[in-house]
Each structure stands twice: as C-alpha cells, then as structure tokens.
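Structure in, sequence out. Go:
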C-alpha cells in the first residue's frame, strides 16, 4: 500500500501531539525548518501541513514569534442566560470567583437610564471576576434595582453567582443583549490578566422579571479565550 503524502504524515504527527496534549494549548511547535529537517522534506511541504492545521483551528501563527497550539475558547450561548459556574463545571473544569466590589451606590446618568430609575437613586453594585481553572474568563459588573431584589447585596457571591441568585429571586421574563468588541481599559485588562492591547468581548445585558427591569450588567470576556454562540431556527 502506498504511503500517504509526506505533508499528511507531518500533519498527523502534529495533530497527534496536540490531541494527546503532549503539546498543550499555548505550546510553541517546531519551526518549518526544524520539521523539514526532521522529516527530510522541503520547507514548503512542512508549511502545507502547518497551514492545514491553522485553517482547522488547531494552530495559530504569531508574527515574529512562531506557531502555537491554539488556546481552546470557552463558549456561552448568546441568546440564553446560563449560570457561568455551571457552564465551567459542565466543561469538566474548576470554577472559582473573586468579589472585587459589593455595595450600594448612587446611579449615574448612564446607569439610571439602563436600569430605568432616576439619577442618584440608590442601587446595588457588584464587580466579580469569574475563573476557569484559575484563569479569568469574565469580569461581571452588575447594577440591581433594590426594589425588586432587596436581599441581593447581602449574598455571598463566592458561593453562588449573581445570575443564580437573581434567577431564583426574580424569575426572568425578558432579556436584552448587545455585543461589541472593545479595547479594554488597563483596569479591566489587569483584572482579566490580558496582554496589553488585546481585545475583549463586551456583552451588555439587561433582565426583566414580570415586566420589572431588575438588573443591567456589563460582562467582559478576553477575546482570545472566549466566544459567544447563537442558533436560530428559520
């Protein structure tokens, strides 16, 4: 039986290393020159094997640095509200969180507009970083109307997420989403442990319960580690 083309042999070799996690996410693979010498082929042949795996999303090229095993992105459904702790655990990973801020604040113009209250109204504010296997995957900044969730500010959000509490206390009837890619501030980059200049996904979410506007939230995700998914039947 004829052997498979040399570039496919190299591709299979690379794929085996990735799938076995001998080369974990973020690992810098051998260069085209190193692979061409190892397999006694031209650099063009090695390049084709790498190029195929880049197209398949297993490798990514970084100019002047090399080719790396892709970091697998965490994924959330865009048109649903799910508990991020449950999502992480369902992927077989460890979930933790860190509460940065939890207090009563006065609503400024933007928050008053988003939450449907008057400027200066006391509202609850929480700022929490959510982690997957000790890596930050979401910064959550949430403002809640105390009229409809009076005990929100008293919760221990290292034991349950704000989403988990609000779904129980104020069953959801409507949600509103907007998504945009942004360059985060240094404060956000530091909290998400993102390299300087890296983009993030910002999900702006508002939730209602029985026609009452309950909360507005800004959810920041590292762009290189996270993606949002939507599916619609037509």
């Amino acid at each position: 039986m004829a052997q498979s083309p040399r570039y496919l042999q190299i591709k299979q070799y690379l794929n085996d290393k990735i799938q076995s996690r001998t080369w974990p996410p973020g690992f810098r693979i051998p260069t085209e020159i190193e692979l061409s010498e190892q397999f006694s082929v031209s650099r063009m042949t090695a390049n084709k094997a790498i190029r195929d795996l880049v197209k398949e999303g297993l490798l990514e090229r970084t100019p002047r640095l090399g080719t790396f095993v892709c970091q697998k992105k965490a994924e959330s459904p865009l048109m649903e509200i799910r508990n991020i702790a449950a999502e992480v655990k369902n992927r077989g990973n460890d979930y933790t969180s860190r509460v940065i801020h939890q207090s009563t604040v006065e609503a400024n113009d933007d928050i008053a507009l988003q939450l449907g209250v008057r400027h200066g109204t006391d509202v609850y504010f929480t700022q929490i970083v959510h982690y997957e296997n000790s890596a930050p995957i979401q910064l959550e900044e949430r403002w809640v109307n105390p009229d409809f969730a009076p005990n929100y500010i008293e919760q221990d959000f290292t034991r349950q997420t704000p989403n988990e509490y609000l779904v129980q206390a104020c069953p959801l009837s409507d949600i509103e989403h907007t998504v945009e890619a942004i360059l985060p501030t240094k404060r956000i980059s530091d909290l998400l442990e993102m390299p300087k200049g890296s983009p993030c996904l910002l999900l702006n979410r508002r939730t209602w319960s029985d026609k009452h506007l309950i909360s507005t939230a800004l959810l920041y995700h590292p762009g290189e580690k996270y993606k949002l998914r939507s599916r619609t039947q037509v």
